[in-house]
Amino acid sequence: MNDTSKIIILGIESSCDDTSAAIIENGVIRSNIIAGQKVHEDYGGVVPELASRAHQQNIVPVVDQAIKKAGINRNEISAIAFTRGPGLLGSLLVGTSFAKGLSLAINVPMVEVNHLQGHVLAHFIKENDNDNNQPSFPHLCLLVSGGNSQIILVKNHLEMEVIGQTIDDAAGEAFDKCAKVMGLPYPGGPLIDKLAKEGNPNAITFNKPRITGLDYSFSGLKTSFLYHLRDNIKINENYIEENKNDLCASLQKTIIDILLNKLKKAANETGINEITVAGGVSANSGLRNTLQEEAKKRNWTLFIPEFKYTTDNAAMIAITGYYKYLNKQFATHIMVPFARMVL
């Protein structure tokens, strides 16, 4: 019999190329294990078939480690939270199927989690029993990753409204694709961040989109960047290598400017001054520094996630599962994953 005073959630995340399992007890993190996949570096991006095969190899040892590190046995688990989508379908199938099997084996309910909601709720993971540093409601969340760029009005743990989003490419995609054009290895975003620190962010001007409202667009920036390289390589074939730091710094500044302009507009329109940032791009040091500067100027209360919670991880799935468990939002065993899902 489970101890009813303890709500222990096993979270499983397998939306892309990281296999992750985490244990959260009454909102407090007890373990968060992540197994990455180096194989994709040779291909310049994630290969879906290789990703799903690696998940099959990793998921049993990863879940086993998470349970052992948390110091519990599997019969103490109250529910299993799993990522239903969005993501790579083959990868999602591995996590979903494992969650279903374990749920039947230990006779506990399942909770399906939207990967994007997980990123937003990563701010509510408690590091210990006395950790009360979480955002209040309502607040605005800037969710920026390889596949998403959104401004989300967070009304409570389970009610969210997307008030602005990209109409084409995401910010993380712009980082990675521009890095690839420069010949940088995958993933390109972290390397651009590193090189940008040595460059002049005002050295080169790239086109910025003119999109009304709170929506984003990054396809025009990618085209502007490509044309800039093409025109300058005609004059100097070593242009990229000789100007790599300035290219990275200027590109990064442009992306951050685009993100921040809409976030400032959203804050002004809603009157909300409590801001969170989430997703893989929230690890970018330039974005973090700029947000902190804006927060001081505009009197925002700003929440920036720890680096370990920026990329895909099961802790964010488990914490979302915890709040859905409290609300008795359980999944059935006939549920299937979806490659595309919205908040």
Written account of the structure:
The protein has 343 residues and is an alpha/beta fold. It has 2 domains: 8-131 and 310-326, ATPase, nucleotide binding domain (Nucleotidyltransferase, domain 5, 2-Layer Sandwich); 139-308, Nucleotidyltransferase, domain 5 (2-Layer Sandwich). 42% of the residues lie in helices and 17% in strands. The protein has 10 helices and 10 strands. The protein has helices spanning 48-70, 89-106, 115-121, 171-181, 188-196, 219-235, 239-242, 244-270, 285-298, 314-326, and strands spanning 8-13, 19-25, 28-35, 79-85, 110-114, 139-144, 149-154, 160-165, 274-278, 301-303. The strands form 2 sheets. The chain has a 5-stranded mixed beta sheet with strand order 3-2-1-4-5, sandwiched between helices. A hairpin with a 2-residue loop joins strand 2 (19-25) and strand 3 (28-35). Helix 3 (115-121) packs across helix 10 (314-326) and helix 8 runs parallel beside helix 9 (285-298). The mean pLDDT is 94.
- Count of distinct structural domains: 2
CATH-scheme architecture of the largest domain: 2-Layer Sandwich
CATH homology superfamily name of the largest domain: ATPase, nucleotide binding domain
Sheet/helix structural class: alpha/beta
CATH class bucket of the largest domain: Alpha Beta
Q: Summarize the main sheet.
A: 5 strands, mixed
Distance between the termini: 35 Å
- Radius of gyration (CA) equals 21 Å
Multimeric organization: single chain
Side-by-side strand order of the widest sheet: 3-2-1-4-5
Low-confidence stretches: none
Mean pLDDT: 94
Q: Into which percent range does the helicity of residues fall?
A: 40-55%
CATH third-tier fold name of the largest domain: Nucleotidyltransferase, domain 5
